[in-house]
Amino acid sequence: MLFRSRLLLPFLVATGFALASCEKEDASPSATALLDHRWLLTQVDGAPLATTAANTPYLEFVDLGHCVVGLGPCNNFSSRFMLGASQQLHITEPIATRATCAAQELENRYLASLARTARYEISGTELQLYDGEGGAPQLVFRQEAGQ
Question: What is the distance between the alpha carbons of residues 4 and 104, in angstroms, rounded to a whole number?
Answer without folding.
Answer: 58
